[in-house]
Amino acid sequence: MSSNQNLKTIRLNEADNIVVARVPLDPGALVQEENITTSDEIPRGHKVATGDIGKGQVVRKYGQIIAFATHDIGKGEHVHSHNAEYADYDRDYAWSAEARDTGFIAENERATFEGYIREDGRVGTRNYIGILASVNCSNSVARLIADQFPAEVMQPWPNVDGVVALPHQTGCCIPLDGETHGNLERSLTGLARHPNFAGVLIVGLGCEVAQIDKMLEKADLKKSDTLQTLVIQECGGTAATVSAGTKYIEGILDKANHCRRSTCSASHLTVALECGGSDGYSGITANPALGVAVDFLVRNGGTAILAETPEIYGAEHLLTRRAINREIGEKLIRRIEWWEKHTAANQAKMDNNPTPGNKKGGLTTILEKSLGAVAKGGTTTLVDVYRYSEPVVAKGFVFMDTPGYDPASITGMVAGGANVTCFTTGRGSVYGGKPVPSIKLATNTEMYIRMQDDMDINCGVIVDGTATTEAVGQQIFKEILDTASGKMPLSEQHGIGDLEFCPWQIGAVM
User: Is 503 inside any structural domain?
Assistant: First the structure.
């Protein structure tokens, strides 16, 4: 991409038959760099044809197929959902053809951050006490316990980030061996062992499908002074359970307060990669810049999790080529095939995306959105593929099967062990998710200025021509280290994050 600020459009690949408008273009605007005159109004971030595209012919962006023309499209016309659409086509998986050895940085030269080293050796970036509900029926009691510890009460324990309850909307009337229960079980036990918690209390009702003891046993988690459970029906009701929960937390606050940050290798960082409220610039600025930061992280021994399976659809062949071996590539494709069957069974289609906001921002098809989304994962080898909320044990670049719905997707990655979230957005997102800090990366300067109370980094400077993708990627990597060391992103400063725990629900609720 050219850095020339005088250019009206952005060309991403010489093979493309569209360019992206850098600025809004009126009908009749001359685009000298492409020798075209616009015949329509072209909003900022939208596509304009650089030559005639016949009906049924492919539309290319990033050098890849993003759509097929539904009508003849003339040179200079606006290319969007009114004249281009999704259609399936054969992708060449080229198993592992582009997998390369990673140039790891020597251990004694790796980047560091200030983190909390837990007894099991894992490292947290925050120091919360968590209250989890096994079922929606125990949400209110969990919340009432947390309410006993407002900021003014917590002043004697300044090293504790807070006592947080994480309610959710499931836990019963679901098949015990079904996928929803499996997702919930892994999400709860993943949070129960998360290094950003100094202690955890799990509260259940008693008669729900999600029986606490069975979940802990399956996950090989044992009760201790930092992991306790309460069952409302056994305690004797709401007041008794709140009293017991309050006493438990009062008893561990001193221990949690004695936790101190110490210098840790960046290899202890696991970063969740998310994009939401995407626009036509997402795949041009924020996502590629985040990809640069991911490459820095992986070279420093850390882990990055790409997710949102429906939003890599149509770009999965770019990941199979980077898979460490064919087995890992096929593991990814099996998740794609599951989604195709799942959506068909629910009278939906994989091209249900982009959302209305995505389309207003310039994204036409899921193919276009996915190609931009994959850029978050950088360029290193794909070393493993995980189920939703499954513990991530591999180091390097990995994939987790999650829905595209942001809270559910991030819940899965955090349960898998992510201790920092990087969230790119073009339309504007205000997401935050305790106990893990969420860094917001704006794709364009206009939105960054409009929502500067929520955006941490402006990646729009790339398309403005005032910074390179590499430079912004380095800025993001530094922000990850600073945030892991305690710097509060804006969503955290606003106190956002108590209501975003959202285990993925699949199938029947009976």
Answer: no
Q: Does residue 274 share a domain with residue 256?
A: no
For residue 61, the domain's CATH number is: 2.30.130.110
Number of domains in the chain: 3
pLDDT computed for residue 1 by the predictor: 47
Q: Are 351 and 486 members of one domain?
A: yes
φ, ψ of residue 452 in degrees (nearest 5)? -65, -15
pLDDT bracket for residue 5 (50, 70, 90): low
Beta bridge partners of 20: 10, 47
At 4, is the pLDDT very low, low, confident or very high (cuts 50, 70, 90)? low
β-partners of residue 223 are none
Task: Render pLDDT for 281-337 as a digit per residue (tens, 0 to 9).
Answer: 999 999 999 999 999 999 999 999 999 999 999 999 999 999 999 999 999 999 999
Q: Are residues 221 and 193 in the same domain?
A: yes
- Partners of 384 in the β-ladder: 398
Q: CB of 223 within 8 A of CB of 271?
A: no
Check whether residue 141 and residue 208 sit in a common domain.
yes
Q: Which two tokens stand for residue 310?
A: 């429906």
Is the pLDDT reported for residue 3 higher than 60? no
- Please report whether residue 502 resides in a domain: no
Q: Are residues 487 and 412 in the same domain?
A: yes
Q: Spell out the SS3 assignment of 234-253.
A: HHCCHHHHHHHHHHHHHHHH
| Calpha distance 222→219 (Å, rounded) | 9
Q: How many CB atoms are closer than 10 A to CB 432?
A: 25
d(CA 404, CA 309): 7
Using one digit for the tens of pLDDT, what is the confidence trace for 451-495?
Answer: 999 999 999 999 999 999 999 999 999 999 999 999 999 999 999
- Integer Cα distance of 463 and 471 in angstroms: 13
Closest C-alpha among 306, 337, 335 to residue 322: 306
Tokens 């910074």 correspond to what residue? 467
Q: Any idea which residue has 């494709």 for tokens?
A: 333
Q: Are residues 243 and 277 in the same domain?
A: no
Strand partners, 385: 399
Average pLDDT in the chain: 96
What is the residue range of 442's domain? 270-493
Q: Which two tokens stand for residue 6?
A: 């005088």
